């Protein structure tokens, strides 16, 4: 009989070998991920101006010109988009070109994407939201708290080879007593997205879960739930929004993300099984909140917003459209009106470890643009929640040409 321990070890090694091969294939020829350039239409949309206004602006002195390569159209880097936003702020004085939070006035917002249901679209939603915010000029920190490290992988890092344990949130849990902001800041790693830093994940987070439990058993008063919050207190000043991606179950790190959060986004695909397990999630949340409120403080686990987002929605499926409208009727404003549609392009992009914001489709641009527009609408509605918390107008209004 095969030794089961040996068998699992061997399978683990085989998975690693296949993963290495996949990374080799996906990242070839240049291993380092770079961000693509953005078309004038995309730039106009991101800046909230009309395409014709943008055409006029590129003739103005000091406005970024983008690049015209050969016979192709003008395109812009994300740095140029940020530069354009600064130019618009300087020339118009319109506060909507200054999206960053006002120091001492607007609080840091921490948005946690969470659901116990595996594969419900947490990582896809969280990563796209973080990148959407970065594109729109916010300073963003993404914290990957899932040992599966899917978000980390989407940012072009191989969690096995490129993420040392000491660079994940696990190392913060093992910090020396005197560790402060310098040590905390060391974990926030810049990505190829200007304005978007990442605290990456690796399997070290799995061990961290056990360690946290062990520590709690030894020291009953250990504030295990405040570790992420404490970390963000030290690094938060440099950011407007923190986006947390969680593993699909209840772990100590998920509880930390629930504690640190100022807003929750719960992705639920429109299927019976997803609702069943999301029901369990809400039951659990009710219990955790009741426990912590009783033992800790009556304001524990208070959020500015809790929103359900419909993910992987097939609008051509009659059952799904019924489920979605039923859900909308029951949950009312707790469900974001904009669903994220299922699109093969999220998968296609994901295979090459990209998001819709990074992907350059080889085939139909129309399908791509439809998917991207749906993703933008979802993200804009979550952004509106942030703006409401900061007391700013909730809707993006497009400026006339
Ligand atoms: N809108 C979409 N259209 C098509 N496929 C999607 C969409 N959103 C997510 N997916 C796919 O569904 C799968 C699961 O998505 P994702 O990894 O975001 O879920 P998750 O909740 O983070 O999973 P886990 O629980 O394992 O962390 C992925 O293969 C992803 O590419
Ligand atoms: Mg995930």
UniProtKB/TrEMBL annotation:
SUPFAM superfamilies reported for this sequence: P-loop containing nucleoside triphosphate hydrolases (SSF52540)
Residue ranges the record marks as coiled coil: none
Top-level taxon of origin: Bacteria
Protein name as it appears in the record: AAA family ATPase
Pfam families hit by this protein: AAA_31
Ranges of residues in domain AAA: 109-296
Organism: Marinimicrococcus flavescens
Family matches, as InterPro entries: AAA_dom, DNA_Partitioning_ATPase, P-loop_NTPase
């Amino acid at each position: 009989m095969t030794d089961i321990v040996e068998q699992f070890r061997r399978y683990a090694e085989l998975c690693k070998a296949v993963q290495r091969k996949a990374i080799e294939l996906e990242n070839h020829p240049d291993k380092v991920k770079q961000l693509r350039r953005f078309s004038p239409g995309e730039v106009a949309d991101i800046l909230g101006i009309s395409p014709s206004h943008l055409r006029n602006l590129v003739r103005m002195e000091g406005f970024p010109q983008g690049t015209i390569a050969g016979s192709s159209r003008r395109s812009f880097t994300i740095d140029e988009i940020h530069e354009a936003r600064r130019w618009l702020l300087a020339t118009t004085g319109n506060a909507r070109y200054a999206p960053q939070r006002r120091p001492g006035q607007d609080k840091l917002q921490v948005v946690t994407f969470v659901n116990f249901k595996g594969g419900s679209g947490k990582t896809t939603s969280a990563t796209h939201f973080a990148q959407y915010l970065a594109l729109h000029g916010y300073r963003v920190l993404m914290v990957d708290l899932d040992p599966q490290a899917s978000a980390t992988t989407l940012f072009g890092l191989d969690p096995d080879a490129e993420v040392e344990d000491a660079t994940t949130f696990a190392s913060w849990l093992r910090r020396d007593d005197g560790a402060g902001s310098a040590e905390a800041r060391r974990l926030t790693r810049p990505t190829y997205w200007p304005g978007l830093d990442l605290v990456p994940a690796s399997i070290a987070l799995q061990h961290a879960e056990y360690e946290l439990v062990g520590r709690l058993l030894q020291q009953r008063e250990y504030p295990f739930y405040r570790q992420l919050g404490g970390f963000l207190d030290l690094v938060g000043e440099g950011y407007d929004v923190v986006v947390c991606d969680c593993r699909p179950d209840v772990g100590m790190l998920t509880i930390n993300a629930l504690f640190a959060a100022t807003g929750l986004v719960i992705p639920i695909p429109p299927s019976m099984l997803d609702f069943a397990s999301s029901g369990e999630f809400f039951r659990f949340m009710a219990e955790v909140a009741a426990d912590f409120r009783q033992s800790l403080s009556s304001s524990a686990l208070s959020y500015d917003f809790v929103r359900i987002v419909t993910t992987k929605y097939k609008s051509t499926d009659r059952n799904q459209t019924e489920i979605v409208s039923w859900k909308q009727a029951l949950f009312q404003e707790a469900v974001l009106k904009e669903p994220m549609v299922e699109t093969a392009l999220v998968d296609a992009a994901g295979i090459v470890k990209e998001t819709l914001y990074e992907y350059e489709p080889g085939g139909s641009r129309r399908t791509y643009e439809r998917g991207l527009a749906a993703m933008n609408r979802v993200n804009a509605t979550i952004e509106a929640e942030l703006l409401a918390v900061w007391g700013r107008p909730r809707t993006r209004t497009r400026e006339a040409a």
